[in-house]
Amino acid sequence: MKTVNILAILALVGIVGTSCTSGDGDSPPNATPTPTATPTPTPTATPTTTPTVTPTATPTATATAEPTPTSAPVAGLPVFPGAEGFGSTTPAGRGGRVIAVTSLADRGPGSLREALETPGPRVVIFRVGGVIRLRELLFIRHPFVTVAGQTAPGDGIMIRDAGIVVISHDVLLQHLRVRPGDEGNVRPEDNDAIALLGPKVGDAPGAFNVVIDHVSASWGEDETISTFFGAHDITISNSIISEALNVGRRGVGHSAGLLIGDYSDRVSMRYNLLAHNDFRNPLIIKGGTHDFIGNVVYDWGIEASLIVDIDSSTRVDFIRNRYLAGPSSGGEVKEIWIESRTPRGKGSTRPRLYLSDNIGPNRPNEEVDVIEMLSFSIDPSVIQGETLEEQIAWVKQTYLAEAPQSAAFTAPSGDVIERVLSSAGATRPRRDEVDRRVVDQVWSRTGRIIDNPRQVGGFPTLSSAAPPQDSDADGMPDEWELWQGLDPASALDGSQDVDGDGYTNLEEYLHSLL
Ligand SMILES: [Ca+2]
Ligand SMILES: [Ca+2]
Ligand SMILES: [Ca+2]
Ligand SMILES: [Ca+2]
User: Fold this and answer.
1) For a FRET experiment, which of 26, 82, 331, 505 has its CA 20 to 30 Å from that of 494?
2) What is the C-alpha separation between 460 and 89, in angstroms, rounded?
3) How far does residue 63's CA lie from ligand 3's centre (Å)?
């Protein structure tokens, strides 16, 4: 246990002994873990602009030419239809060159690494499916990139043995499986499936305007997904974050799901499944304004969600989440644990949460007071009030907000659990056996936190298949182009926007696969 805190407070409010929470040991590679900036939480409204028609300029790009953006950006256009959350109006690789991944090799011609290391706006499609075994971390250093895993033939794409590190901006990743495991070359302390790092790594601009959507991330040794060092304006949506490895090469238990780490700001976490992670479901530490909406948290171990505020004015909206205990679930804390290390006398910098429609073991329905699913670590001396009732009232008044503080959102209709379990993760072309098993385990309330992938059958194999015919190599198959009235013999039309809705023709094809 790295952090020993406090404090007893109110029996009814819930209480804690130790936490296993800090950012200790989470240093990303080549980075100095000494953030110097203090973030200013800035609630940001969701753009309400209705996408307007913008004529497309004459296309000049080809599949092999240098990128030529084809149209003025449409203000407020979601990066794909239905995208929501902080950063989700990024253009990503829109209008850029098409780069096809044709090799599963770690590097070299046709590799994913080569595609990501190519500067300039780009849309990365896959002409091969299967498993990419990385020999080292896969960095995204250059901005404006779309990685469309849904285009992969066969069983789709899985990345193993190392993870992805995003240190640039305007990035969309969809339908990828990232399962580092414990057999690769990355130090366990750095071995995240996906890390989004702010401007603290070399001279990189840092991660912002990043959308991670329909991604399956599992078997990390550090975190599974993390944001750190001031990464901001990020959405992690419709994804599965599962089976963070516990006692493995690190020698200590470190099954950590999702870390919104030091000085991250404006991170949306929506409609994700977090399953079989001992802690950090998520951990939000040191500030920022974030939202956690419509997620399913299953089978946490010692803790589910934790907010550690260290004199940092953290603001988080927890809305419509479902906490389902599983065989690993234990610990003394309730579903949402608020730890405030704000020094005495700095009352204006306490964390504040907005809670609405969250259900869990300690609050099985909306009739139960929200306080029942909260645990607090607070210096007892700051708590005001003589009687228990007065103290609880003070705690509520101090730590709970009456209205959402982050981006606006559209409440999804239907059942959250049904939605998440049916659609989360890399579902295109199809879910792999890891995701199918995890989802089945949520339905049946089975499974456990694991130490290594061998305990659950090891790495799956994914097969490739013949990709669709694409004669002009613009990323759109011949058949689809003919159906759309495009020219299967000309690559000029991929970056055009024939219906003027702001999405290029190539994007329309990518969206048709979602
Ligand atoms: Ca990490
Ligand atoms: Ca084509
Ligand atoms: Ca074409
Ligand atoms: Ca269009």
Assistant:
1) 82
2) 34
3) 9
